[in-house]
Amino acid sequence: MNELTPIVSPLPEGLREPRGEAFAAEFITLLAERTTRYTMGDSTSVRLETAERLAGGILYCIDLAQKSRSSGAAGSLKALYETGVREAERIKRHGKLLLRQAESIRPPVENTGFRDTLNALPAFFRAYDTAFFAQEIPGDIDYPLCHPVSESLKGAEYVCEYLRRLNLETAFLRRFSAPLLTLVYERIYLGDGGILVNLYMPVAEAALGRALAGKTARNLLTDASDRALIRLKMNNLSEPAAKRILQQAANRVGAELGMTGGLERAYLVQTAEALLPRLLALDAEPGYRGIFAPV
């Protein structure tokens, strides 16, 4: 809407109970106070969409405060909000550290989507407004992860989790040489350049395929006999049994590559488990050639 709107906002479902109308009134008072601060005292009215954004920022910070171990017993709504703002600042600082790590451990191969996303993230931290719009993500994150971050996370929480997963993926990629990675991308993606694709997934799946075929994960490429063996191994298994086979393959890859971090290993196990529907649905030839990079 374009017209100016006084500060009225329907109370979100999560705030209606158990404190009822008194809690709602406290929220409206806080929203009016934040609006006055946002307009630097010039007005107590803003456009409806701005009021909704301000309300969303308050609710997000309250939620952060309630999840924070340092928040203690619930106090006034304003106190919870202020605790949440401090928590958002803490998460922002942690995100900057994760970004520094991401910048220092880039993959061995170049990818335009990866590079552009990493180059754009410093602008997020400069524009991120914990005081008013901590729930928002100013800027674009285009590079896709193998396992996307849940959209239930907002603001710096989302960006931190994105960077955490990105760094796990990069750490895995750095265990292989650039020429071998490029070969995998040529087999699976028909190249590795400027297209917006995930770099981790085809490499992790290739390593898992080698383990399923009883071979070293470090080579990454499978031949027709490897793929036939994998299909034979997975054929007629129950879903729980097939999942165990994939988990065991992930554990073998992790051990062979010296993956000591629990998070990195868990991420690979998750990747292995996600393979199950495709492995059960496809034939070894030509289906598995699109999963496990062929020789």
Keywords for this entry:
DUF6179, disordered N terminus, 11 helices, 295 residues, mainly alpha, 3 domains, two-stranded antiparallel ribbon, single chain
Shape: elongated
The low-confidence runs, each spanning 5 or more residues with pLDDT under 50, are 1-14
Q: Can you write the helix and strand succession as a string?
A: EHEHHHHHHHHHH
- Major beta sheet, strand line-up: 1-2
Q: Give the tally of β-strands.
A: 2
Topology overview:
Elements lengths: L3 E3 L13 H19 L6 E3 H20 L9 H28 L7 H16 L27 H19 L4 H11 L11 H13 L11 H11 L4 H18 L5 H13 L1 H6 L14
Antiparallel strand pairs: 1-2
Helix pairs in contact: 1-2, 2-3, 3-4, 3-5, 7-9, 9-10
Pfam families: DUF6179
InterPro entries: DUF6179
Characterise this structure:
- It is a single chain.
- The chain has 295 residues and is mainly α.
- It folds into three domains: 4-83; 85-173, no CATH class; 178-290, no CATH class.
- It has eleven helices and two strands, in the order βαβαααααααααα.
- The protein has helices at residues 20-38, 48-67, 77-104, 112-127, 155-173, 178-188, 200-212, 224-234, 239-256, 262-274, 276-281, and strands at residues 4-6, 45-47.
- The protein has a two-stranded antiparallel sheet.
- α2 crosses α3 (77-104).
- The longest helix is centred in the N-terminal third of the chain and has 28 residues, at 77-104.
- The protein is elongated.
- InterPro entries: DUF6179 (IPR045751).
- Pfam families: DUF6179.
